Amino acid sequence: MRLGITMGNKTRRFGARSCFFLFHFSVLLIFGKAVAELRYSIPEETREGTAVGNVAKDLGMDRTSLADRGLRVVSGSKEAFFDVDADTGALKVRKKIDREETCPGRSACLIELKILVENPLEIHYVVVEITDINDHSPIFPETEQRFQIAEQTSSGTRFEIHAARDPDSGVNSIRTYLISANDHFDIETSQTDEDKIPLLLLKKQLDREEKQKHSLFVTAVDGGKPQRSGTLNVSIIVLDNNDNRPVFIKDTYQVEIFENAPVGTTVTKVSAIDPDEGANGEIEYSLSKTLVRNVYDIFELDRLNGKIRLKGLLNYEESETYRLDIEATDKGTPPLTSRCRVTVKVKDVNDNPPEIEVTSLSNTVPEDSKPGTVISLISVSDKDSGVNGKIISRITSDVPFELKPSYKENTYSIVTKGFLDREMTSHYDIIIQAVDCGEPPLSTVRSIQVQVSDINDNSPRFIQNPLQFYLVENNVAGASIFSVSATDNDVSENAVISYSIARLNDVTSFLNVNSENGQISALKSFDFETLKTFQFQVVASDSGSPSLSSNVTVKVFILDQNDNAPVILYPVSSNGSAEGVEEIPRNVNAGHLVTKVRAYDADIGYNGWLLFSLQQVSDHSLFGLDRYTGQIRTLRSFTETDEAEHKLVILVKDNGNVSLSATATVMVKLVEPKEAFAASDLQSSAKDDEDSHVTFYLMITLGSVSVLFIISIIVLIAMQCSKSPDYTSKYLPETNYDGTLCHSIQYRSGDKRYMLVGPRMSIGSTIVPGSHANTLVLPDRRRNNEEPKMPSADWRYSASLRAGGVMQSSVHMEESSVMQGAQGVLVQNWPTASSAADAEGGEVSPPMGAGVDSNSWHFRYGPGGPGAPPQHLKPGEVPPEAFIIPGSPAIISIRQNQGGEDDKSDFITFGKKEEAKKKKKKKKEKKDKKDKGKDDGDE
């Protein structure tokens, strides 16, 4: 064995083609430096397991890291003759090599190996030369050859003998020919470009009469040590004279034919002439029996006309040249023979597509790999030659990978050319196409699949932020109230999400979340009257390393239930019970106001809408109760036979699904008119001092209202100038209330607006659309050319507002009108308020959102009763005069008697047109005159 190192990529078939040399020289210039190539040499038939050389040592590798680096031989051939010891780096023979079988007809037998090393990825080339040993003896194609030689044949004539064949090469091939001892013949050799042809030389003329047959032995001897030989028996029959032999027109024929020529194609035609006549001049052609065996399978010769035709298919890749020895023999006695040689050169056609070999492949690549990361090594080859064997390789699929050429021709590495994102594409099919330069070009396509592995580069994501949930009050403590859910585009552990609550306020201490499924449970029961809305944050974290998280704001709105019974405000006795005594003169007319029952419900909407009914009365013909206002009036005049004392039990109930109620007892005593007048005088004298203080308070109130009105106008103008087309809903501030007048809250959800009605509505009060009878769906006031504009956010009270403080008047509900929501869906039966029978009632036009412009609203307040003084306001309470109906500027008119009592004409009107003001004013004057006339009649 021998080791050699050559610089560069040496081409085995260099030949006379300088283009290959120029190509490899250009490759060296591109890569900037030569690359080492190992060479070893071993004789054929070497035993299995024999060490050829130590690759690791010759390449200067660290032997301690060989096992980890995966040192191995990558062979492109079907048979692997060598392998490498991954621990020692020794290159060993895997199976015996027969040089003649492996490299038939080649002068030099070279096997090229690829040595692959990983971590980092390297590839080295090793060439092993298989040297010949003398393991074959020369063999003649036949064991015996016969000649017919005329006795007149002159001395010096040469006869061609069958040439022996020896598969060995070099010195082990045939060296010489020997002939057995005789008097007439000797042996000579003729050297051609490939073979030595033995010739039988006639030294002395034959004499048929002396000897008719001669038997000789021709021995072929090779040059091996020890020598091997083969023997041919030659029989010579002496004939009578045939003095002219056939003569070929050419001694040598040169023919070129394409390898794809079909069977039956005429290759060429040989021709010989013989001057003899008769049978001695008739010529027959035949192929020499000394040709290579496969020639007889590919070519056939017409024995009469000398045409050479294709009998089989040609293959340039198997043999580029065929040499045919043609014999022309006449029919004389003895026959004479002559020879010529036909050289057939096969021309290559592009009949072999390129082949793509994947040397090394990493099936998985992390998505955070940098551009230029090596994914695979590939090599391409083509069995054709010349231009037909030149290959152009490229990636045809639209993938973030590219081919990078190696220093060795037709060797490439696949590298990333951009950043990867598994969430967009989790795997790639890299389609590699290799196209040769033949005409027409042939191509080969190979697909390589690469999986992109995940890294934790995506945070959990909530579909909606913020989230809104509606919760009915009095929920069960510890039960689940709702759930949140987030998604993560990563996979496996990077997508496992856990949930937690950000503890930012006191409310979150009563909430708990299931870390696995996001179910949120409340540890306490919520009360709408205490808490109407709250919000908190839920954090979603994945299980990646490092962990990523995101949060969502959860807004919770508490919904009201009918869990509060009505509370009687009047009458109330000194011991706190709902009992009272009323004294009236016996001579009052029908319709006289005896008293008025006042009640309050902490719930909102229909849960807080109160109705009054008589549960018990001594005489149904005497007293009547207004079911909406709680006013008790006489139905007729009293007679002498009527009892002096009557007991009335009034039931007050709300309109909830499960109605709650309370009762009040009123004792009505009939007294003589003088006694009633005396009692009235006593009450008037007791209130004189009180009236002076009330007058002072009313002056302060009037001044405050004026200042508040001016400030409101300024704020309204400023907000109208600065408001944006898109507005958000606000909730009404909570005010105290002790009557039965319902109020409303308007808010927006998406493209719809909702109105909630009921007493004691405060900031944050809300209800899920369609789930409760308290909700109205209002038309969207933001649409163009269809509805009026949205009022400023500072005008917080709707048309159904209630006065701050203790309101002494109830609204007389005479009938109900139907309110419709979006798409005509029936939403609410809304009570329509109108004037009560006396001046202490109020009137309200249809509710906000019922299709009526807010400019048409009128709200009027009157005093608590005839001659009654104004009620004192508690600290922080706002008088009715201070309320402004949203949607329009307000004109406030307040009149007061000299005596300090509120005039029955006190009112608040809202509108823009002066005509509406005048009409309302005339209507008011008529009503005042009518009331005054009634009062005079009563007196």
TrEMBL record:
Residues 918-927 have a biased composition (Basic residues). The keyword Glycoprotein applies. One of its GO terms (molecular function) is calcium ion binding. Residues 896-939 are annotated as: Disordered. The chain crosses the membrane at residues 696-719. Residues 34-140, 141-248, 249-356, 357-462, 463-568, 583-682 form the Cadherin domain. It is a single-pass type I membrane protein. Residues 901-917, 928-939 have a biased composition (Basic and acidic residues). Keywords: Calcium, Cell adhesion, Cell membrane, Glycoprotein, Membrane, Repeat, Signal, Transmembrane, Transmembrane helix. SUPFAM superfamilies: Cadherin-like. It holds the Pfam family Cadherin_2. InterPro entries: Cadherin-like_dom, Cadherin-like_sf, Cadherin_C, Cadherin_CBD, Cadherin_CS, Cadherin_N, Protocadherin/Cadherin-CA. It is found in: Cell membrane. The keyword Signal applies. One of its GO terms (biological process) is homophilic cell adhesion via plasma membrane adhesion molecules. GO terms for cellular component: plasma membrane. PANTHER family: CADHERIN-87A, PROTOCADHERIN 2 ALPHA A 3 PRECURSOR-RELATED. Potential calcium-dependent cell-adhesion protein. May be involved in the establishment and maintenance of specific neuronal connections in the brain. This is Protocadherin 2 alpha b 9.
